[in-house]
Amino acid sequence: MHDKVKATIEVIRPAIQADGGDIFLREFDEATGVVTVELTGACVSCPASTVTLKAGVERILKDRVPGVTAVSQYGVDDISETTVSL
Fold it and tell me: In the 3-class helix/strand/coil scheme, how is 50-71 assigned residue by residue?
């Protein structure tokens, strides 16, 4: 299934590259179905990157690869928040 995820990312890449960004597969957890990708280039500072990730990349991966449950962004979704008291 990892190969299918990777192949689907490769199909998506040209559209993201056309806007000055890029996407790389970082991890696929087959047990949970979570795909972790890294967005680079123009995607890093783009306010629409979350929409691209969820409405675009996640939707396409879920449609094309059975077992994919979610897509998370490397370096963003995996950072846990901490509480700071003043």
Answer: HHHHHHHHHHHHHHHCCCCCEE
Q: How many CB atoms lie within 10 A of CB 34?
A: 15
Residue with the two structure tokens 């890093």:
44
Residue 79 within a domain? no
Report the largest interatomic distance among the alpha carbons of the chain, rounded to a whole angstrom.
48
Q: Which residue has the tokens 């950072």?
A: 79
pTM of the model: 0.80
In a domain, 81, yes or no: no
Measured from the Cβ of residue 44, the count of other Cβ atoms closer than 10 Å reads 13
Which pLDDT tens digit goes with each residue over 12-28?
A: 999 999 989 999 999 99
Is 42 within a domain? yes
